[in-house]
Each structure stands twice: as structure tokens, then as C-alpha cells.
Specification:
Layout: H1 6-19, H2 23-30, H3 34-47
Helix pairs in contact: 1-2, 1-3
Amino acid sequence: MEMNNPNEARNKAREMLIAGEDWDKVREVTNLRLKDVKRIQKDISEHF
């Protein structure tokens, strides 16, 4: 599944990380870099 809009990919990654998916699964679905996924995870962790 390819995400054309970068914001759409980030939002999907955020939803998946909150749901408890692992980084590999998130990267596979959203095609984001590991660095981006870690940054999203950090933002989520700081919020909670």
C-alpha cells in the first residue's frame, strides 16, 4: 500500500503506533524511514 501524501503516511503511522504495531509493520505499510517512525514514536511518548 503506497501513501502518496506524506501527511497521510505520518497520520497512518501514528495510528498504528498507538495501536501497538511494531516499527517493521509501520514501515512496510507507510514506506516511511526508520528515522521518521522513531520521531513519531518519540512525539507520542512525550504526549502520554
